[in-house]
């Protein structure tokens, strides 16, 4: 009986100890904003060991934290904007308690040189290190083994943010974290590694697996690869961003589950994203791969599976949210990547016609396309076609231009009841085609699948008919031979002021000022196809169409 009584008394005493300790501490958030306030803490709270709320240390003259040496637990510690603080001595007794974790935020402490005071800290719920320009590594956090954002201090957004630390070279002290309990069902969890110009490796992040809300690797000029990231992570709801990393060449061996939105932008040396072959599921509605001039191979498993979803009825409208441009050849458009993935064109039939915007060139492809039931009025030889849709907007005349050896037929109506537009079927280009304003039109594009097959990628452009044939012609002016394979001869009874050559995309190829009655244009080096020759005499200009064989 006495033994049981002694046990109950002991339990009561142990249970009261935290309460007695807490009773000697502030009962709400506290901010120490000067050295005097820091020094007064031990006088005001002589027996305080465990705080129940946030402690903020932020002051222009704070240099010494030794008056805080009695504290063993703080659920949320913020050390912000201390321009003279070099050491954190005084926090050396800080440690985690069972089932409770600390949110640690160190921000804008430019003279802080180390974190070695935190050797007693074993678990965290949030770590934010920003603007500590003298900090070289994270030694001192190498005793942290648990990272649990669901513990006390996690808040609505929690995670790991290491940002704007200009001397930080190494985060490997985090390697000892063996248990990172990431559960975004309770909190929004993120990892942000940004603006650390000499950080050379992400080694230390291996334990952070699971599903994040967003992961951002931005403006780390010395980072060569992403080795160190977990091989079992996914990004849900928000972005996986890899942007503005000047030396980044590859993604390393990262892998994981799914990615909902992906941005890979402005990484000038990046040439290897094969790591995306390791991801098991496709991402959602947003893909942006831009301004990576060395990136040419994008037909990885993740991209191919995701782009292929655009063929599904519920996803075709998401095509504008897939942006792939300004990378190396073979990875500079959705069409190029889909082509490399070996897909039948999404716009193989009229019902899935790609929408074109007047004045904006689109790269498309017709490889693996099939024959539609709509029969064009010209060049219907071994036809395998694809489809586009355009609204005429406020224009009355349009030019529709494709690359050499492609044929075009313009249709009006809707896909269930199409009618050929009269005199709007030709090879390479439809020029000066009269249209009704604010009306949808469909464009059928194909090439001869056997004798003159232009299988593969091609550009298509719809524009206002600006380069047009004038209503008058020059008297006694001749242009020959047309078609030509070499020299094009121009003769006039008046001196020619300017002669300009344009391709069908409206791009000027050459320009000359003959100031004579004759002129020769050497077209031998030009690709086969249609060209426009603009001749100006006495302030009047005429545009002639010339076929280069």
TrEMBL record:
The keyword Ligase does not apply. Keywords: Glycoprotein, Signal. Signal peptide: none annotated. Its main location: other. Residues 479-545 form the Secretion system C-terminal sorting domain. The keyword Cytoplasm does not apply. InterPro entries: CWI-Assembly_Regulator, Secre_tail. It is found in: Cell envelope. This is T9SS type A sorting domain-containing protein. It comes from Psychroserpens ponticola.
